């Protein structure tokens, strides 16, 4: 009931002030009000503070925070106390405690900065650095214990889960026990080796490289995947050829070949259709022709009238005329598309585990105008006399990346399911 009452007051204040002002501070407060009404207290506080960073004396935000902030912090403290009392080995509760403690510290920092420019905001947050330290240490201990339990499980999925727990342990506490060493061990045991075959009909010649680049950017995918490309395979074969001739000493080829032998999956793909042309005939044109009229001053004349006192009063009167221009606009659109598929196969048997169709498209567009007639009736668009649409080379580069990103989303999902 109290929250509804506070929300009503804040809404009234916002409606009053928004009629008289606008700007990014009002937009931020509008988002704060909506978040509060939706039950998203943290977002509401963050947006209200953002409004005050932009405009420190913005009254609705000050009133909103003065009425709601203490209640939000009190609820947060109650939640922290409740989580601490729970006898629950799940480390997620400590993740939440750390998050809330650090969020309170961030609020305190923001309030301090705002207070330098506004003495009307009478708010403070009690933050104890020791509480944050205890929470982080407890989170590290909880994740470490969970990691020890998971690492005894069978299968790569269990090792991956254990590695994640150990990573979180040393993220909270840099030197917590031997978490870094155990992370490395579990990560190694949980790593899935994937061979990446060159794409068939690769118009760019870079699709497999783009795929690996996107996989490596994706933390969820790259943490437990090791990729072997055609370049790796060619290098291994070259080393073996040289080694057999006696002109080459043993190098990393043996290790790579070992990785290849233990590869579990093969990623292969094919481009089935690629459409892009730099030819002028491939550009779609939508022409529109309009006549534009403008009323312009063409001169003036003098008119006179006799006043009651007999004097003559004269004044200048502007003369206007309508002028016309023809405005022809061509909306130009150049389209490109690529479609194909990505499939994940069992490396040893060749069985297709998953096949997914992928399609991406890119468009380049713009408007070019041709105007004739009286220049005084021209519109600003008449300045658009030239346009350069993107080349197929540029569009192909984007489609290569877009295709790879879509493929990565599928690969991440499938490899996670297959390693359970």
What would you say about this model in short?
The protein has 420 residues and is α/β, with parallel strands linked by helices. The chain has 13 helices and six strands.
Give structural notes:
- It is a single chain.
- This protein is an alpha/beta fold.
- Helices cover 51% and strands 24% of the residues.
- It has 13 helices and six strands.
- The chain has helices at residues 2-18, 24-37, 41-54, 59-85, 92-115, 129-150, 155-172, 179-190, 207-217, 219-222, 230-245, 253-261, 392-418, and strands at 192-196, 225-228, 265-275, 284-306, 312-346, 352-373.
- Strands 1, 2, 3, 4, 5 and 6 form a six-stranded mixed β-sheet that branches.
- A hairpin with a 5-residue loop joins strand 4 (284-306) and strand 5 (312-346).
- Helix 1 runs antiparallel to helix 2 (24-37), helix 1 packs antiparallel against helix 4 (59-85) and helix 7 (155-172) runs antiparallel to helix 8.
Tell how many strands the DSSP assignment holds.
Answer: 6
Tell the overall outline: flat
Which structural class should the secondary elements be placed in?
A: alpha/beta
Q: Spans with pLDDT under 50 lasting ≥5 residues?
A: 1-10, 12-20
The span between the termini is 47 Å
Q: What average pLDDT do the residues reach? A: 84
User: How would a textbook summarize the main sheet?
Assistant: 6 strands, mixed
Beta-strand residue fraction: 15-25%
What count of helical segments does DSSP give?
Answer: 13
Pattern of helices and strands: HHHHHHHHEHHEHHEEEEH
Helix content: 40-55%
Specify Rg, calculated over alpha carbons: 34 Å
């Amino acid at each position: 009931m109290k929250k509804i009452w506070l929300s009503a007051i804040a809404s009234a204040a916002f409606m009053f002030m928004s009629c008289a002002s606008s700007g990014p501070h009002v937009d931020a407060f509008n988002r704060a009000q909506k978040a509060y009404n939706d039950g998203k207290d943290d977002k509401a506080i963050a947006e209200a503070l953002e409004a005050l960073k932009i405009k420190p004396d913005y009254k609705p935000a000050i009133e909103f925070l003065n009425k709601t902030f203490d209640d939000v912090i009190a609820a947060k403290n109650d939640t922290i106390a409740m989580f601490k009392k729970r006898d629950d080995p799940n480390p997620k509760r400590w993740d939440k405690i750390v998050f809330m403690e650090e969020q309170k510290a961030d609020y305190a920092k923001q309030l301090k900065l705002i207070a330098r420019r506004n003495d009307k905001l009478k708010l403070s947050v009690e933050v104890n650095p020791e509480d944050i330290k205890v929470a982080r240490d407890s989170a590290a201990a909880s994740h470490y214990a969970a990691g020890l339990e998971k690492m005894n499980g069978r299968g790569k999925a269990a090792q991956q889960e254990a590695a994640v727990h150990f990573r979180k342990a040393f993220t909270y506490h840099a030197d917590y026990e031997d978490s870094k060493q155990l992370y490395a061990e579990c990560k190694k045991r949980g790593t899935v080796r994937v061979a990446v075959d060159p794409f068939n009909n690769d118009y760019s010649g870079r699709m497999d490289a783009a795929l690996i680049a996107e996989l490596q950017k994706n933390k969820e995918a790259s943490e437990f995947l090791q990729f072997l490309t055609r370049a790796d395979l060619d290098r291994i074969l070259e080393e073996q050829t040289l080694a057999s001739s006696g002109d080459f000493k043993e190098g990393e080829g043996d290790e790579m070949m070992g990785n290849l032998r233990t590869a579990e999956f093969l990623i292969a793909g094919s481009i089935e259709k690629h459409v892009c042309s730099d030819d002028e005939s491939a550009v779609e044109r939508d022409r529109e022709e309009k006549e534009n009229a403008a009323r312009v001053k063409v001169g003036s004349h003098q008119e006179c009238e006799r006043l009651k006192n007999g004097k003559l009063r004269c004044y200048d009167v502007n003369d206007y005329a309508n002028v016309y221009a023809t405005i022809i606009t061509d909306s130009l659109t150049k389209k490109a598309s690529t479609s194909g598929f990505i499939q994940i196969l069992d490396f040893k048997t060749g069985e297709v585990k998953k096949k997914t169709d992928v399609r991406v498209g890119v468009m380049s567009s713009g408007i070019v105008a041709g105007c004739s007639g009286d220049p005084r009736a021209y519109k600003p668009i008449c300045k658009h006399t030239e346009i350069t649409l993107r080349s197929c080379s540029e569009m192909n580069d984007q489609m290569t990346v877009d295709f790879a990103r879509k493929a990565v989303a599928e690969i991440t999902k499938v490899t996670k399911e297959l390693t359970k």
